[in-house]
Design goal:
The chain has about 180 residues and is of the alpha/beta class. It has one domain: Trna Endonuclease, Chain: A, domain 1, CATH 3.40.1350.10. The chain contains 6 helices and 7 strands. The protein starts with a strand and ends with a helix.
Length: about 180
């Protein structure tokens, strides 16, 4: 999994961070369509926050969605903000419905800088960020986060709709309509 945890995280939590973050998150408990935008994805996650936190791993607490950051009278919004008790740090998640683009890393880096300067408490570790997108190219991700000094990771999510059949299974199973007719 492409990540950049080496520069800002204290040595005592680097290995914990690698254990906490996944490369792919299964979010089949939400109801979205392929063409739904990030706002709908975010609302579905928030409406199912307990299930989402359980899919994330251990120690997460939900702080908020569209968490407002102010810089010089400008407003910016982190899609989802969590706190991880084991890492003792803020965890910002940016949701993207498309394939990872390098500019997503820059946006997240900005948010992490602001969180560390304006939100993080003195006893807490530096903030960590995750770009959660539909697809990624690991080499593009590596180049995008290579020289960023904030700890971040890029993961993908998988969403299986209850009424859809995965492509590799379609030749073996009837579609929902054909199955309904058979019943």
């Amino acid at each position: 999994m492409p990540h950049n945890f080496n520069k800002t995280l204290p040595e005592n939590i680097k290995s914990k961070a690698l254990e906490v973050f996944k490369d792919e998150y299964l979010i089949d408990f939400i109801n979205i369509n392929e063409d739904d935008d990030e706002g709908i994805l975010e609302n579905e996650i928030v409406n199912n926050i307990r299930k989402f936190i359980m899919s994330m791993g251990k120690g997460y607490s939900f702080i908020g969605n569209q968490y407002k950051l102010e810089v010089n009278n400008n407003e910016f919004f982190v899609d989802l903000l969590f706190y991880n008790r084991h890492l003792q740090c803020l965890v910002a998640i940016e949701l993207k419905r498309k394939k990872f683009k390098p500019e997503y890393a820059g946006q997240l880096n900005f948010y992490l800088n602001v969180l560390d300067d304006k939100v993080k408490l003195p006893h807490e570790n530096p903030s960590i960020g995750i770009v959660l997108c539909k697809q990624k190219d690991n080499m593009v991700v590596d180049y995008a986060i290579k020289s960023i000094d904030k700890a971040m990771s890029v993961g993908t999510y998988t969403h299986y709709q209850a009424n859809s059949i995965p492509e590799n299974m379609k030749e073996f199973l009837p579609d929902a309509e054909a199955l309904g007719k058979m019943l």
